[in-house]
Design goal:
Elements (H helix, E strand, L loop, with lengths): L3 H11 L4 H8 L3 H9 L6 H11 L3 H5 L14 H17 L7
């Protein structure tokens, strides 16, 4: 199970955002985001919820309680959602050694 700090950094990188961009979105400074990602400080629950929303992951994922980062499909058509599911199935077959879904 990865630590919260590692999950926060990975989620930010997967979202292709810089610490400065995230800080601006959350209303904090870059140093605060850095301390969360190094494990020096932990975000408040309110900030953690905002980060999860920005990264489009669940709080459970950030805490390591869920292995799935979950992909939000709200606003997509049924056809678009099925296309994403198909791509995920292809990737799971391509990388079976990871065990990730």
């Amino acid at each position: 199970m990865e630590h919260l700090a590692e999950k926060l950094k990975l989620a930010r990188q997967n979202a292709h955002l810089t610490q400065a961009q995230v800080a601006s979105m959350v209303g904090l400074n870059k140093a605060a985001i850095s301390t969360y990602e190094t494990g020096t400080r932990r975000p408040s629950f309110e900030v953690l919820c905002r980060l999860a929303s920005i990264y489009k992951v669940s709080v459970d994922y950030l805490f390591g309680l869920s292995e799935s980062s979950s992909i939000q499909t709200e606003g997509l058509t049924a056809e678009e959602t099925e296309l994403i599911r198909s791509l995920i199935r292809i990737m799971e077959k391509k990388h079976p050694e990871t065990g990730e879904k």
